[in-house]
């Protein structure tokens, strides 16, 4: 079985890759080999051998040779990391590798052995080696103390036992502790005993009575021996002090001590000194003093010097807690004999307590409309001192609207003395003072914080008597105009203010169509966009109302000023621009320099600098002939008019306001430089029209033609549809009965128009066109029963179609108007 396991392990080791499952058979194989071979050889060596000492020869004991040790790479495996034994492969011997201390290695365990294995490879072998470590007597017995002291009374009876310290020896077997001896043995003998674990201990037994007068102190030596060779031992000194016997008791000088003491005696104050005597001599005559436990808790307030008998104050005394103290004293000598006495201490009262103010009930807050004599608090005031030290008086500050009333012994009430106003003082710190009549006197202050609850007795007050807000026109709806703020001296809900817009009329409509007010913040918002040209200012009223019950309110007037924006261009009033006529100013050729041709009159509906107008000449047929006054718009000649100057002069004047950004308007001024009217007429009959006007007129003519054409096509389709429908009905009637007369059907309100269609009435569509579209005339569709009129391009009614086509009129200001 051993050979099979090794073969399997060698086969696994020869493979290129050893897996974890392959290691399990290998370990099992080693274990089987060890079991098969049994326990290895056992070597014994003493402890403390030097390094390199020979332990044993494994070649002889294991039947191996040096060649096998080398080829098998023999090595030692220990279960712990420390190796005490080493292997010399060249010689096949085991040697000491490290110092071995049996007591350190095994302590008291016996036998003490080292166990390790020698491992060889190819084939793998495992040999167990056991090395027993033999103890040597390298430790002597040791006592823990160098000297043992006893104090034994001379009255101790023979047979009394006194336990002694045991010695300790870490060696084992014969080398460990074996026996004890005690010398001298005049008064004491030694008795050895064993514990349950086998260890030994000794007791010292008194054999004969002690006599302090003969031997006041005894010196003994205790020796412990082990069983080693050579034998080792340890000793300890024993000192016995014989205590004198006490046969006399102490005696106090008085059976009762009486003393008077003020209650404010400082800690450490000497109250009295007691004394007791003892007839014994030496330590038996020394007396110590103490308080008897029967003194109770009072003993904590005083202390007594155990040697001198001096009684002192140990804690604060209080006459109010106890007027008298009784202390039981005890005097004891060294032998434990005692005597008792008593101390009576009477306390004298002093004024050491201030009055105590206790609040039985306290009402806070109280409403500000509370009537005088309203009870605020009930008080209990007392002073635990006696006599005049316990008498007192109490009061409050005179500047407060409160006073103290006595209701019964030691009971007082705090009441109001005036009408309260929370808005003036919302909280009072009322200090109640109680002062006794002792010398020196003591006083106590008690401060009560009284809150005054609010009553809604104040209406909201706006920060200003009136407000003025400025808002730019063309504002966005919802923009903030102004925030009004009101303050209410009340508190809580009584001071919670809501803002409302009073429903008044502004320019005949409700103010709510202009302005809204945020109820919480008082922010005034614009409901719509304002137009300065329509409304320059308006007034509203805002109401502030608190949340009290009943609520109080106040109003404030708010003036909204609309600020102008430059949103309107200048408008030219003169000369009038008309699309159907041409106005020309006549300048005689004899006009001098500075001749006033005309004046451009313009207005701007804006205000301020937005309405400040300036004039300048933008274009002119002859810029060297005319100029425009920048402030007044007057057109004057710059030089003398000559015959070379053209009759037709066209000036383009720009009127510009002073806004940011500025807006402007242009006006065309026609000037005729001529001395006679026929000359003017011949030049201005074909005066070019305004291009914009021509474009607009052409657009509307084309649009009218498109609409008329569409209606005409729809009418033709409708007529054809009706004709087809009537024809099919006639065919049906014809087929149903040949003898039935055929009656044509005409829908009501329709007239036959010669087979071309049906309309309610006859409409005429006449368009009179010329090569110049500006002179074309459009006659709107009218029934035949109505008169036909024509419209100018400005939408006004003009001459009928049969009237004359043109007429000429001259105005009184040398103006010539040409109308079509």
From TrEMBL:
GO terms for cellular component: plasma membrane. Keywords: Calcium, Cell adhesion, Cell membrane, Glycoprotein, Membrane, Repeat, Signal, Transmembrane, Transmembrane helix. GO terms for molecular function: calcium ion binding. Its main location: membrane. It comes from the Eukaryota. It is found in: Cell membrane. The chain crosses the membrane at residues 697-722. This is Protocadherin beta-16-like.
